[in-house]
Amino acid sequence: MKSINIYKGVAGIAVLCLLGAAWWAFQEGIGHAGPVVIAFFVMLSLASRGSELTKGFSYTLIIFAAVTTALYYPQYFVQVNGFKLAGLITPLIQLIMFGMGTSMSIGDFAGVIKMPKGVFIGVGSHFIIMPLLGFTLAKLSGFPPEIAAGIILIGCSPNGMASNVISYLAKANLALSITITAVSTMLAPFFTPLLMKLLGGTFIKIDMLSMMWDITKMVIIPIGAGIVFNKYLLKKASWVETLMPLVSMFGIAAIIVVITAAGRDSLLHIGFLLVLLVLIHNLTGYTLGYWAGRLFKMPERDCRTMAIEVGMQNGGLASGIAKGMGKIATVGLAPAVFGPLMNITGSLLANYWHRKPLKVEEHDSSVLKGELTR
Description:
By secondary structure, the chain is mostly helical. The protein is built from 17 helices and 2 strands. Strand 1 (79-80) and strand 2 (83-84) form a beta hairpin. Helix 3 (58-72) runs parallel beside helix 12 (239-262), helix 10 runs antiparallel to helix 11 (208-232) and helix 11 (208-232) packs across helix 15 (315-324).
């Protein structure tokens, strides 16, 4: 009871911060309300930890607090003592991908043999639907070419590990989700540069070979090292399994903050429209992914997986690619916006599906019975 009262008290402080921000914005303009707005997101993040229904949003709210800080005080996140913080993006991506590898094994790819139809449809839908959606939205946006290309880039990126967590919470097919993520990630060095050349090349110049190498060193090598570590060393260093998710969360937050600070002026100029287009991209991906599963007469659990795997992207990798292109402040903006929004919409979708009973179809029944007899 005492802890509940504490969370309620923190929520009250969050409300006061919001009211204070509104008053400050009215009196002196929103540009002077930075400290109170930042405090609002921090307090709201802490308050959300007090409920099972909302605690999944705590990390995303902290990201919002960090992004707000970067928007108000960008000078602290661009460079330190002459060192440009954008130089940290590639090493952070490599560290995150290594962490992803430590949670994987060769067995994750066995799903290609066990569930070939689902994997083929999932990976195919992902690399068809999201790039074409991104290209369409970029064409309609009227944005400067480099910012528009960023919308295409996030669409051409592979699935993110967050999709596996959301699939689990949504009572989707977790095994299929893990396999689709693994396969799409390993195919990224080929498909992402190819699609960017075909679609993004209409906006900016794309060096396909350079992008292939950038993705290989950011994805394939670290994940491969992580898989080897998982197989031979993880049992001797079990602390890594606990540490890596925290490192990944910190890394993603740091990447988003650096990109936000670097692209602050552009983001303030086109921010609302970019957020709207990214949200449309994400939500339409869920919708078309789900109905792609329905089109191929897949069971409900697999359709949920298709929706999540198509709609959720690896924003961190897309940011790393933008850094490799030397366009972190423009091409990197859409990926930086997509990540936090994706976590919110994914959590809401998972919560909805978690509470909605599965449509028990013939195939679903056999799968569920098989799981219960293991």
